Amino acid sequence: MPIRPRTVALSIVVVLLTGCAAPTLSSTTGTTSRDDPALPPPTITEPLPRPWEEEEMLWTAPFSSEPKAAGSSFVGISQDREGGDVHFLGVDREGRTQWSARRDPECTAFAVTHSTVEDKELVVLLDKERDPEQGLFATRTSASAYDPDTGELVWGPTEVPGTLSGPGLVFAAMQGSVMSDRTGPKVALDPNTGDVVADEQDGDTVLHEHHGTLLVHRDGGLRAFDPHGETLWDHNELDIPEEVGTESVRVRYGPRPESDSGASLLLEWVASATDEEDESDEILLYTLHDLHTGERLLTLDPREEPHLLGDGRGRTVLLAVPIGEDEPRIHGIAASDPTSTWKLPATSEERLRDLVGGTVHTTDGERHRAIDADTGSVDHEGDSERSEVVPVAALDDGPAILSLTDEDENPVLAAAPVG
After folding, report:
1. Contact 273, 305 (CB under 8 A)
2. 80-128, pLDDT tens digit by residue?
């Protein structure tokens, strides 16, 4: 069964806008320990939607843009003025800033990953320094991993070719500008050590990384590896779906997650009688697979491109039309049982907004739904005009960070309790 790689267009806007591209002075990979008290909560005059309509805000988050939840903390950037220095901050659930790390304003991309050795989440930050061996203005980019709760360096710095490309710990140099979907050769890093585990300059096509499991196109086919480089599965072990109905078929990497990464991945089966790469090949169907085992979880209609979200806790949510059906469904896979799925009916206009703190938020323009990503139970449902606020980050047991407008109509990030 011949297989070819898919050229993947970048789809996560925050990644495209947060490159690490401009020559700058060298900066440190270290962090500074802090113990700054929480900022008082903002005054919010507009009524809040469910489930926060009767809640009091807890504290104001000291970030300039949307943070990420990692460990028991929130990590994000603080920038006093446009073009000024950037400081990454680690803020605990009580709103106290525990550590900071100075970075160049062009190095704001960061990722949350998981160490399987220590069984804990890590936050990976980029840095840049001059590289005099390559020329007067040459620079090199590196990645380092930190404990999100203490700011302690876990590994790094590891030299990488450029900014985060994803999914997962995949890095690439952007060609032309950070708004281009064309990249130079990519590398993937091991979240346990920071070692380069795949490099496209060695002939791989790096496709997807999640918590140390890596999918590449190597030696003519799809291959998945564990953090030790052991093969988990390859394309020869995938059963050809009976719905394909032809022997002239190949399988390739499908639409990437619309989130930083995911424990599941989409593949697409195409009709092709040749080994030549051709993006115009007819897609016969999509399938959803467990990244670690390769097991097929769902078979999906080819007429509607599926939309996939994953989170750092192994949850997966998919909006797609199952094969043999006419209406879209929202499917979920809990991290505790990646072989079991739940599903809910969806409207033809419904779309996934985000998967935050174990809750998936959807909208169809008229109604908003908040759905438990582990069970599929609808936590609340309401008018979209009263439900426009979706948490930008949340710890599973709270709090959540909301993007709101204060009494002076200024944007503000505020912590709210999670029931």
Report:
1. no
2. 877 678 999 999 999 999 999 999 888 889 999 999 888 999 999 999 8
Residue 120: both structure tokens together: 């804990």
* pLDDT, averaged across the chain: 85
What pLDDT, on the 0 to 100 scale, is given for residue 391? 92
The H or E element spanning position 17 is helix 13-17
> Which two three-digit tokens encode residue 62?
């000291």
With a CB cutoff of 8 Å and minimum separation 6, the contacts of 374 are: 315, 332, 334, 335, 336, 358
The whole model's pTM is what?
0.87
Output the CA torsion 129→132→136→140 (10° steps): -40
Of the two residues 176 and 396, the one the predictor is more confident about is: 396
Which single residue is written with the structure tokens 């203005």?
A: 137
Check residue 129 and give its pLDDT: 78
Q: Are 115 and 122 in contact (CB under 8 A)?
A: yes
DSSP state letters, 144-212: EEE-TTT--EEEEEEEESSEE-SSSSEEEEESSSTT-S-EEEEEEE-TTT--EEEEGGGT-EEEEEETT
Give the residue from 204, 203, 162 showing the smallest Cα distance to 184.
162
Per the CB < 8 A criterion, the answer to whether 142 and 26 are in contact is no
Q: How far apart, in whole angstroms, are the C-alpha atoms of residue 387 and residue 389?
A: 6
The beta-strand segments (E) located in 211-350 are 213-218, 221-225, 231-234, 249-253, 264-271, 282-290, 296-300, 307-310, 316-320, 329-333, 341-345
Nearest 5 degrees, angle CA 233-CA 234-CA 238?
Answer: 95
How far, in whole angstroms, is CA 318 from its chain's centroid? 14
* Confidence at residue 341, expressed as pLDDT on a 0 to 100 scale: 85
Q: How confident is the model at residue 362 (pLDDT cuts 50, 70, 90)?
A: very high
**pLDDT at residue 406 is higher than 70:** yes
Query: Which distant-in-sequence residues (6+ apart) come within 8 Å of 222 by Cβ?
Result: 3, 207, 215, 216, 234, 235, 238, 251, 252, 253, 267
Q: Which residues contact 64 (CB under 8 A, 6 or more apart)?
A: 76, 77, 78, 79
Q: What is the DSSP letter of 16?
A: H
Please list, in sequence order, all residues whose beta carbon lies within 8 angstroms of the beta carbon of residue 178, skipping any fewer than 6 positions away: 16, 17, 18, 19, 21, 163
CA pair distance 214, 105, nearest whole angstrom: 30
